[in-house]
Known about the structure:
Helices cover 69% and strands 0% of the residues. By secondary structure, it is mainly α.
Amino acid sequence: xxxxxxxxxxxxxxxxxxxxxxxxxxxxxxxxxxxxxxxxxxxxxxxxxxxxxxxxxxxxxxxxxxxxxxxxxxxxxxxxxxxxxxxxxxxxxxxxxxxxxxxxxxxxxxxxxxxxxxxxxxxxxxxxxxxxxxxxxxxxxxxxxxxxxxxxxxxxxxxxxxxxxxxxxxxxxxxxxxxxxxxxxxxxxxxxxxxxxxxxxxxxxxxxxxxxxxxxxxxxxxxxxxxxxxxxxxxx
Length: 236
């Protein structure tokens, strides 16, 4: 990569982060390109060289966030043999990223509040991931008797995504504590007695920390995280 191309890549990443910070603070409707370029200490002309308009910029933030969250969630999704522990670890991983990574948090917010006509939203992908894990847990006999995965999936999605919105500004430890408290209260009614004692509501710390760090470096194919059908290959 030549020097000029490297400089263009750095400039684009700086603009992307600046846009994420403004979108995170103001929301899509109130954010202005002039504010984003000023925050990046660049001209609006330089901004338009890389992005056609605000929608293009927001779409790029969403796609970048989707990649970060998908890569991070993939690790506990694949590494844990027990589906319920995978579920707990993924929630902790996503919570940590939404707590301190402004691109992930801004993309999550944009994908929720910004209508784009039928695109798969984070919340729908998370719902599909949870349902697959709960179905696997049911097949393994890890769920309590008479537990129905479908209504349970909706309840967990509502609780965890709500926490994902509320953790803005919290430290990593506060976020971990919030999710740990949720699972401490929820798992006893979810997991079969012979499985419950093996589960860690605080998450598998080393695995979660590794997933958060690795989310920046692992390969990501947007098509693999585009929807429920392709998501069978991965979590989100």
